[in-house]
Specification:
Layout lengths: L4 H24 L25 E12 L2 E14 L4 E6 L5 E4 L3 E4 L2 H19 L5 E6 L3 H7 L3 E5 L3 E5 L7 E5 L2 E5 L1 H9 L6 H19 L8 H11 E3 L3 H17 L1 E5 L2 E6 L2 E6 L1 H11 L6 H16 L6 E2 L27 E6 L6 H11 L3 E7 L9 E4 L15 E4 L5 E6 L7
Parallel strand pairs: 1-6, 3-12, 16-17, 16-20, 18-19
Antiparallel strand pairs: 1-2, 2-3, 4-5, 6-11, 7-10, 8-9, 13-14, 13-15, 18-20
Helix pairs in contact: 1-6, 1-7, 3-4, 3-6, 4-5, 8-9
């Protein structure tokens, strides 16, 4: 049948919209590229010893609830070298302690609640000392639908992941995944990225980065053409960005090159700390400032190194009294892999990382339990306050081989099988009483 001029225009318009939508999703997954017009640095100082075209894009996953604007529970910065067609992804833990303009020092994910993406961008720029050229905000509630729209992804689940929380404020949470290569729809995928182990938010960041790489591989596959119409529908309401159509199309042109050259993924180096029941990630600013550029193959100038060290010294002076740094858990930015479960022999407490989450509503319970575990030799990866105070029973979740290691605690608890071989999570319930 012969097409009318109007039908042809309509067809071209649909193709254009689909193309832009695909690029937006790719951008949201952290595969960014830049125009050759951006050569700025944070304070007018030389970033590297090379004349490079590096662009920084901030990606936020926001969990908004009703009238609550929400917090950026996922926060990443992508640095892209246009000339080399290489990209490096930096994940910023949501508990990272930073200075937020007008609000003093707080967790970085609170910046979005205080002032949206603009204040978050300002805060990230101050932390990294580089400009953020663009931002992307992703509605986390749309995550499941978007993954279904692209036909799911293939992930090699690294370990048994089992967790049930009937008190979760989204109406209950059940995570039940087995190790091995598997195809995940949106429902399974959100279980994978939400799972919490003894590494807390740090372990979850590693899974997010792994998942994003798998999503990128799916996006550049030929079969994506079949899923584009549904993808357009989901993306329109899921993302907000300040990037123009022309910039998005530039991203698409460089997408294949970035994928072929590899997308490296790191985390802000630092160490966990806590004060009372509040957990923080304390960044190593001097290492952080060099990380993204070294991943792209550049050497940071002496001027930038000196400023980074001065900023770090000033930052460390700002730490409040009573903050407990967990130096033995200091991270260089590399995401650690779980050791293979090749033995049924229990591990020593000093080999097990424990995340303590106070779901009881009892002030100070998290710090008390962390102190008990530390005295027994366990490594505390963090102490957090949960979202509810209705959990009835204190529970310790760890690998089957290590359940016996947790017997004899001076408080009521149940010990459950689940999680990595060298990790445990303690959820404190209303039954908590210190002996």
């Amino acid at each position: 049948m012969r097409q009318t001029r109007k039908q042809k225009r309509s067809y071209k318009r649909v193709k254009w919209i689909i193309g832009v939508a695909l690029v937006v999703l790719v951008a949201a997954m952290g595969v960014m590229a830049a125009s050759h017009q951006n050569k700025r640095s944070g304070n007018g100082t030389p970033l590297t010893t090379a004349d490079s075209h590096i662009m920084h894009v901030m990606i936020m996953g926001v969990d908004s609830r009703g009238d609550d604007v929400g917090r950026s529970d996922t926060l990443m910065v992508t640095a892209v070298d246009v000339d080399q067609k290489k990209a490096a992804l930096l994940s910023i833990p949501r508990d990272t302690r930073v200075a937020i303009d007008g609000h003093g020092f707080d967790k970085i994910n609170h910046a979005y609640a205080y002032g949206g993406h603009k204040l978050t961008q300002q805060t990230v720029e101050h932390l990294l000392d580089v400009p953020i050229d663009h931002y992307i905000v992703i509605d986390i509630k749309s995550f499941e639908r978007i993954i279904d729209a692209i036909g799911g992804v293939d992930i090699n689940v690294e370990k048994r992941m089992h967790y049930e929380d009937p008190w979760d404020d989204d109406g209950g949470l059940v995570i039940d995944l087995y190790p091995g290569e598997q195809h995940m729809d949106g429902k399974k995928a959100i279980q994978y990225v939400r799972y919490r182990d003894g590494e807390g938010d740090i372990g979850r960041i590693g899974r997010q980065q792994k998942f994003m790489k798998a999503t990128l591989s799916k996006l550049i596959s030929p079969e994506m053409l079949l899923h584009l119409p549904k993808l357009v529908e989901e993306i329109s309401s899921a993302l907000k960005t300040d990037m123009s159509v022309a910039e998005l199309l530039d991203f698409a042109k460089l997408m294949k090159g970035v994928h072929d050259n590899g997308l490296t993924a790191q985390m802000v180096p630092g160490q966990p700390a806590y004060i009372e029941d509040i957990s923080y990630w304390i960044p190593d600013i001097s290492d952080l400032r060099q990380l993204l550029f070294s991943e792209l193959g550049y050497t940071v100038s002496d001027e930038v190194k000196a400023k980074a060290q001065a900023d770090e010294d000033e930052y460390m002076k700002s730490l409040p009294k009573g903050l407990q740094l967990l130096a033995e858990s200091k991270s260089s930015g590399k995401i650690k892999e779980d050791p293979p479960e090749d033995s049924a022999k229990p591990m020593k407490p000093s080999e097990i990382s424990v995340m303590v989450i106070n779901d009881s509503g009892i002030n100070g319970a998290g710090a008390e339990v962390a102190g008990v575990l530390q005295r027994k030799g366990f490594v505390i990866s963090g102490v957090e306050t949960g979202r509810t105070n209705s959990r009835a029973q204190t529970a310790i979740t760890t690998a089957k081989r290590n359940t016996d290691v947790f017997y004899g605690m001076p408080f009521h608890c149940v010990i459950m099988d689940g999680g990595g071989s060298n990790q445990a999570v303690v959820h404190i319930g209303l039954d908590y009483r210190k002996h």
